[in-house]
Amino acid sequence: MSTDSRRRTPSVAIIGAGMSGMCMAITLLRAGISDVTVYEKASEVGGTWRDNTYPGLSCDVASRFYQYTFFPNPTWTRFFSPGAEIQSYFTQVADDFGLRGLIRFDTEVVEAAFAEHKWRIRTAGGEQQEVDFLISATGILREPRYPDINGLNDFRGPVMHSARWDHSVPTTGERVAVIGTGSTGVQIVCGLAQTSARLEMFQRSPQWVVPFPNLPYSRRTDVLRRHLPASGRLAYRTYQVVYEILLRAMVEPGWQRTLLGNLCRANLRTVRDPELRRKLTPDYEPMCRRLILSDGFYRALQRDNVDLVTEAIDHVEPRGIVTADGVLHEVDVIALATGFDAHAYMRPMRLTGCDGVSVDEAWAEGPKAYLGVAMPNFPNMFMLMGPHSPLGNYSLIAVAETQADHILGWIDRWRAGQFDSVAPTQAATDAFYAEMRAAMPGTVWTTGCTSWYLGADGLPELWPWTPARYGERLGEPPALDRYELRHVRPIDGEKVSR
């Protein structure tokens, strides 16, 4: 079965045409697999960078590192790319790699079931397809989370979630309320502070902020990147090493954790007003939540037209927001920087694996995936950015490439006739989670804070080691005793192996 003439041709369906879905599609195409269908419920590629267009949006991973290794961009304008620039990059990727012919836009997959060694897919429009492999690339921060605030629907002005920003709504010269103090809330405040008549940020709990200037790249740099592609590859590798070193601060104690913690505390001391500084001081360790990178946030909060509100929100009335102390904060626009359902993954899509087991049943105690990419009882189904993938302040593109290569390895084994279906065993998955639970106490994420990282069991749904170790783990030959391999149909007279 080693000759190309005897290799089987797989059919593959990918759910989602965002960063990871496009990465997977390109990985398959480059391996000579052309029977690929990408389902995208929106009318354009890009995922989170298509959906999020709020003022001040930028990536918090260095531009030279937040890009595909197989498609470097020499013309990033800033150290941290603006959101629109990243979206333009992804549309160019789709065009240059001919992905649009594979993508079914405006087509939402509502359910998929594994039966007779195939995945049967059904869309909201009633279309059906059978494929050998199903790959979920739906992303992580995808389903907006709206706050449960009494009277929010009674507000007479516009209310918009950060991922559903309405650019027809004027904010210049208006009174704007921003609810939420995560990375998105910080970016919106920085984006609107200079143009709003009044800006109030409603804080439930403060965040640690690392000061990092978003400097522009010069034209001379662009020319160098264009004419010396090796310099771009060197920059990518350099940033990758730097991020790996810094991310050790999150998974193990050491000088990296001390350094980043000191940077956060030094940055906080730049707030001149002692009372404001007190309000901005978290009661947990730096990096317990996702670090916020911004060199302008504290300056924005110290502007005369910007206020930080720490009183809890009691309710909303037509004129504005009423806090627990009875004060009415009259505003014209309410911006919700309240995040996403970080535990939805591919849901609400209904997936059914072997013996009628649904994803909701399999995840009754919280989302789980072996090595972040596969699930017991769901043969020939893989995930990109699944539960316990390496997240945090790291390039998810680098993670997606690692996962896509791993998934391609399994599809290549299928092409060679080594099995007809594959899924990790329950025992291997349980052992994997026991291994992670044992490692979690050493991470900064368990030092005492609430965050969207935490699952139903109170433990972070994150890889508790370095991204480099993740790459090594997914890159090594799989231990076949940890998988259920089924070879149910003979090929060219061969015997069924199991």
Layout of secondary structure:
Layout: E1 12-15, H1 19-30, E2 36-39, H2 48-51, H3 83-96, E3 103-104, E4 109-115, E5 118-123, E6 128-131, E7 133-136, E8 159-161, E9 175-179, H4 183-192, E10 198-202, E11 209-210, H5 219-227, H6 229-251, H7 255-268, H8 274-279, E12 292-293, H9 297-301, E13 306-309, E14 313-317, E15 320-323, E16 328-330, E17 333-336, E18 350-352, H10 359-362, E19 381-383, H11 396-415, E20 421-424, H12 426-439, H13 467-475, E21 483-486
Parallel strand pairs: 1-2, 1-7, 2-3, 4-18, 7-19, 8-17, 9-10, 9-17, 10-13, 11-12
Antiparallel strand pairs: 4-5, 5-6, 14-15, 15-16, 20-21
Helix pairs in contact: 1-11, 5-6, 6-7, 11-13
Question: pLDDT average, as an integer?
Answer: 92
Name the shape in a single word.
globular
Strand order of the largest sheet: 3-2-1-7-19
Count the beta strands: 21
Question: What does the largest sheet look like?
Answer: 5 strands, parallel
- What value does the Rg take, in angstroms? 24 Å
Q: What's the helical proportion of residues?
A: 25-40%
Oligomeric grouping of the chains: single chain
Distance between the termini: 17 Å
- What is the overall number of helices? 13
Please state roughly what percent of the residues sit in beta strands, choosing from under 5%, 5-15%, 15-25%, 25-35%, 35-45% or over 45%. Answer: 15-25%
What low-confidence regions span 5 or more consecutive residues with pLDDT below 50? 491-498
| Structural class computed from helices and strand pairing | alpha/beta
